[in-house]
Amino acid sequence: MSHARLRNAAIAGGWSSRTSAAAVKRPTRDGGSGALVARGVGTTAADRRAVGRPVSRSPMLLRPLIPCRGMAVAGSGKVLTGDNVFENLRKMEYAVRGPLLLRALEIEKELQKGVKKPFKEVIKANVGDAHAMGQQPITFLRQVLTLTVSPNLLDDPSYPEDAKERAKTVLHGCKGGSVGSYSESAGIECIRKHVAQYIQERDGIPCDYRNIILSNGASDGIKSFLKLFNEKINGKPSGVLIPIPQYPLYSATLAEFGLTQIGYYLNEENKWSLDLDELERALNECKGKCNPRVLVVINPGNPTGQVLTRSNIENIIRFAHKNHLFLLADEVYQDNIYDKDSAFHSVKKVMTEMGEPYSKMELASFMSISKGYMGECGIRGGYSEIINMDPAAMAVLLKSISAMLCPTVLGQVVMDVVVNPPRPNEPSYQQFQKEKAQTLRSLAERSQLVVDTLNSIPGFRANPAMGAMYVFPRFQLPQKAVEAAKAKGQEPDIFYAFKLLEATGICVIAGSGFGQKPGTYHFRTTILPQKEKIKTMLESLKQFHVKFLEEYS
Ligand SMILES: Cc1ncc(COP(=O)(O)O)c(C=O)c1O
After folding, report:
1. Is any atom of ligand 1 closer than 6 Å to the C-beta of 377?
2. What is the DSSP secondary structure assignment for residue 422, as one 8-state letter?
3. Exposed, middle or buried by CB within 10 Å (0-12, 13-18, 19+), for 527?
4. What is the pLDDT of residues 239-298, one digit of tens each?
5. Residue 217 Cβ < 6 Å to ligand 1
6. Which residues form the Aminotransferase class I/classII large domain (predicted)?
7. 419, 447, 465 — which closes off a domain?
8. What is the CATH number of the domain that holds 409?
């Protein structure tokens, strides 16, 4: 078992917290026969020699005679082990990069070594990483980025003037005129102002740049925000309402911070909409166990791809107001709307237009450079807009992010271009608009293609392609397959996803990683492989499913 695999087994919660055995044989999450997992005792000769050796003669270090959880114990050469590392992190799971992906990476290596498989390549439809799947970057965006990294190119006539002007403005805002310097913790002021202008133009509602915080991708901003709720009130932890299925950043973050997850099911029968009755049910169920304080709305949705209607959002806002909840609007897919009858409505706009008391509600909304037409996942840029927050709480948030110095400046540069793209009178306008439209059109086509093809497979049902970058089809599994999965100690959809991977090289994520109603089975596939590849992928998925049904019927 590789180090990465071991590490992931731990992340996936695959290790017990018992402290007795130095090495245990446990089944892996992928249903493998089990692996020798060394815990506590090092495996190298040096490690073995170190076992039992006194670390120091210092009386301070030798004083604790009774070994307790959280300290190096006799028989262990390590201070930090799988058993005493932060428990919340041990429990946390993140399916998108879980055991299925690890196996996919192993298969890729096997293919490179010439191992014969019924397929030639692994198709990673597990993660929303557009560039990894062949999407080309937007030219203007990379030009500005290049110019800020290498200002000597500002004299190069091959770069357009509008890119140079953007780069100069950002460099002017950078300390020492270099993107290599730390910025203010909330981000470079001129970029925060551009973000505010963008939001103002988008919603037609004023936006104060002091409410904008730039971050290392939306994930970083969301985590910094949720951390604020890591406070027990009357001995009870804070509860956070999250959609099920959900993007696992939420379940992982709540597990890490020890916040209580209150799952509300999205209505699959009605295009994954958000039902008020279900929100009420979820809230009632957690009464007495925690203090519900936050309601998370992901719109457009991941993994479900739904785009919420305006009236749906209004109802959510009313519910949050009635129950005194802070709204967290994850709007990273705001550019990814494919359904001609749907539109993106920001929670801020709807809330403000509803007037008081709703317009005074606390809201944190998030945006990213990783999604949309940009797909710049690796550069790590995002922003949050936080409104109506108690100034004292905002001060704590700003203090807490200041301890991390600043978000990556290159991520901030890309965000600047996203919120301040070429204007109609500028030289790069035409090309920028063309590339953006092409990318979004292609995503819309692929989304439709995936939905249509999946719906043509017996036993599959996918909701219409509305937005985001995923399709989350429901499929039926024969009882025999469910029993075979149980015999392996796996969830049936995980069993299915592993079989699919081994037979076709297609890597999707089983629905249980996102949450689903008991007894239903789903997987999440991205729509990101390029058109020809997605066609091949769907064809082999179809063939696999038919064979699977034959085998287990
Ligand atoms: C709904 C949702 N929110 C947040 C993120 C995090 O994005 P980022 O790359 O900006 O951290 C993702 C990434 O897939 C997402 O799907």
Report:
1. yes
2. P
3. buried
4. 999 999 999 999 999 999 999 999 999 999 999 988 999 999 999 999 889 999 999 999
5. yes
6. 145-540
7. 419
8. 3.40.640.10
Read off the pTM: 0.84
Please say which residue of 419, 450, 483 terminates a domain.
419
Say if 69 falls within a structural domain: no
Do 287 and 253 fall into the same domain?
yes
Ligand 1 atom index nearest CA of 368: 10
Is the distance from the beta carbon of residue 249 to the nearest atom of ligand 1 less than 6 Å?
yes
Residue 221 CA to residue 214 CA, distance in Å, equals 8
Does residue 521 form part of some domain? Answer: yes
Domain containing 543: what range? 95-132+434-552
| Separation of CA 368 and ligand 1 centre (Å) | 7
- The sign of the dihedral angle between the CA atoms of 452, 515, 311, 344 is negative
Task: Dump pLDDT digits (tens) for 520-553.
Answer: 999 999 999 888 889 999 999 999 999 999 999 8
Report the C-alpha gap between 161 and 165 in whole angstroms: 6
Dist CA 271 CA 444 (whole Å) = 17
Residues 311, 454, single domain; the answer is: no
Query: 307: which 2 tokens?
Result: 């785009």
Centre of ligand 1 from the C-alpha of residue 248, in Å: 10
Q: Is 370 in the pocket of ligand 1 (CB under 6 A)?
A: yes
Distance in angstroms (rounded) separating the CA atoms of residues 337 and 500: 29
pLDDT in tens, 271-288: 998 899 999 999 999 988
* Cα 381 to ligand 1 centroid, rounded to whole Å: 10
For residues 181 and 284, membership in a common domain is answered with: yes
Q: Evaluate whether 427 touches 161 at the Cβ level (below 8 Å).
A: yes
Longest dimension (CA), the chain: 76
Tell me the CA–centroid distance for residue 369 and ligand 1, in Å. 9
- Cβ–Cβ contacts within 10 Å for residue 45, how many? 8
